[in-house]
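Re-running the complex after MR caught last week's input typo. The corrected sequence lines follow. Everything else is unchanged.
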Amino acid sequence: MNKEPKGMTLIVKTAARLTAGVILMYGIYIISHGHVSPGGGFAGGVIITLAFVLVILAFGKEFSMRKVSASIASSFESFGAIMFLAIALAGFLGGYFFLNFFINKGVPFTLFSAGIIPLCNIAISLKVGAGLFAVFAVLVMLKFTNGKDKG
Amino acid sequence: MGVYILCLVLFSVGLYCMLRKRNIIKIIIGLIIAEYAVNLFIVLLGYRMEGRAPIYAANQEILNMVDPLPQALVLTSIVIGLAITALVVGIAMRIYERYGTFDITRINKLKG
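Corrected-run output:
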């Protein structure tokens, strides 16, 4: 008999507890290897959002919204945009916009190469992930008021 | 040539859902399917004979790749489709809050 009315059953909650961290790590892997293998900022940001969406779906919205609120998502999104602008302007001090300001160019096809592309991937993933999570959080937190008596 | 005909079939499936269904959620699903068909068609336009994925790998000799430009355009298009879906679902939820039903034949009060 299900004692608590919130969230899903015990099996779903246990599986979500085990796999949410793995999904988060997989998203970070896709982001950080964006210049070596397919993926990059946008796909990795979506996968990171899915980890949080899994927690919301499995544990109910009252419990999950106390951990990660919508205002944290908004500040992360703004930080991603400012980081992208800062990367562009930091190159401008050397020559032109988006100049590659790293000293050693690195070996191709390794992790620490390809100039400013990994930093841009991180900024894009922050913005995309936080934006999608904010959309989902607003749709979850919508409260239905009975509006049939209007008009 | 056959793959383009199949893209047209997928688009017509989405169009049928948009025209003939009565539930708003099913109309939204038809819109999403039609959008997928258009994105798939644009990606398939860039196919070259004996081509492979346009990604450089470490010690491999790549002779010919498919065209990567339609894939970059379709990425933006997918993001736009996502934003349209979020907006339309929000409108559908507001309609349900006002009328109490998803049936479009009952949503006929023009005076707000």
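None of the earlier attempt is carried over here. Helices of chain B lie at 2-20, 24-44, 69-99. The domain at 7-48+65-112 of chain B is CATH 1.10.287.3510 (Helix Hairpins).
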